[in-house]
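Q: Fold this one first, please.
A: Sequence and structure below.
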Amino acid sequence: MTLLDSAPPATRPVLPPLRIGRHEVATPVVLAPMAGITNPGFRRLCREQGAGFYVCEMITSRGLVEKNPLTFRMITFDPDEQPRSMQLYGVDPAAMGQAVRMIRERDLADHVDMNFGCPVPKVTRRGGGAALPFKRRLFERLVRAAVDNAGDLPVTVKMRIGIDDEHETFLEAGRIAVDAGVASVALHARTAAQRYSGQADWSAISRLREHLPATTPVLGNGDIFSAADALRMVRETGCDGVVVGRGCLGRPWLFGDLEAAFAGRPLPTPPNLRQVSETLRRHAVLLCEHMGDHKGIRDVRKHIAWYLKGFAVGGDLRRALGMVESIGQLDDLLAQLDLDQEFPADAEGPRGRQGSPGKVVLPEHWLDDADDPSVPFGAELEHSGG
């Protein structure tokens, strides 16, 4: 019997607080870093809903070491944002070690997460992201370079099951990461070949939890679109917490639901369209504060369809909202909505990109030798921040 099975409703937490190194939060939830999404405005909006670890957009170790201006704009944190969680991407252990040492010495963040889960071709074709754990010696060098330079900053890793069904890496990579001294391991339960399609294989999270020491938290990621999904993942896999990505797109109040669920409390009433529109407007304001009015209002456009998913909104009004140019115009358009609509059942379930599976683009001869520790030529991404 698990803690989840034995806990009476609304009387005790479903899970203990999540501890990552010296940091602890009552709710065992992590916001997954998402490019173009998890900027300071969105993170603040989510933090206002509930407790957790909120990770910034992916930063390249090379961009940080070379003090790229865009990189430093991307690692902005609110004064009250604690802990400050930063995700690093890199393929070169030397650059990774330098970047983590810079983070520690300049007090740029309180927690470093390493990206070994990105499946996009521009990353995997250089041997990075989800492709890298296949090269187990290079993977070990990277993780050790980060941990050895981190001091008391906890280092964590996020990875996938493997490159494809024929090249699973997660069990060996998890053990290597733990032996190198990471504070936790998160698993997106898909292969790189799946990208975001199909269904996450939560049984892999169970296998990883069983494979690693109980003292190392294992976090599950994939197909968490509601608090019920999160509780079911914990029940079925025994994981120590969850990582939420696409499930919170246009739905930052999911973190409030998760906080209530993991505390054993009843869930809040889902918001009606009036409350959704108020949250959307606040999101827009926060983006404008962070990016400036022009960039901020344009950035919120991509979020609007996620916020309005399932609600009855006319096509012309949807199109106008998708081309909004100012906060004032946004206010005028939101006022035209039928704001008394209750939260629709059609708004539940998957959201964000799903796409289709495909062959993973890898460097030439990448699969020839898993023990080759060399850094691929031209492996680092362009030095343009994240």
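Q: Good. Now the second chain.
A: Here it is, same layout.
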Amino acid sequence: MTIRVLLADDQALLRSAFRVLVDSEPDMEVVGEASDGAEAVRLAKEQAADVVLMDIRMPGTDGLAATRLISADPALAHVRVVMLTTFEVDEYVVQSLRAGASGFLGKGAEPEELLSAIRVAAGGEALLSPAATKGLIATFLAQSNGSQGGGDLVHAERLGALTGREREVLVQVAGGHSNDEIAERLEVSPLTVKTHVNRAMAKLGARDRAQLVVIAYESGLVRPRVT
């Protein structure tokens, strides 16, 4: 299956470089280019994109607003957004995840990392680039929610619908572990882990694993460790 990729960046030179890289892969193709967020939302629907590489800062409708629009549109439920940031320590990183992005990647990432990011996002996995550690996410969440103490009450209440095993798996997902790693830790099969993850996503209204990570922190199930 070919992964259909949409490029959204206001810098034409960067889009051209990304296009050459993506189109060189046998399992993916660029189906459109957008110079602002509004165009990205329109093309995501028109071109049936699977993954959008979305720059956060663009004129007019920025990447954050565009991601919210994509996430809120039932017709685009299958679309995964990977945010591109100039600096990985970016004040919008967690806002991007909350808006519905599957993850983020620094523009200085290696070509192999970018291609891997597209494949990971297309597969529905949470994407945190190698340079963006779990501690970074935890730090941003701590800064955003530290004054709230008990975490987000809505998410906390939803956790009540999870079984004990689903909560246990959610903690592992928030720790950045893959299904295989979680299966080994809990001594169950990867298929069983996948089932628990999918059920947790359905009960918590999460689009993908990235959203599960945010919910786990915002609800207070997992406490940020700021180092």
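Q: Anything worth noting on the second one?
A: The chain is about 50% helix and 15% strand.
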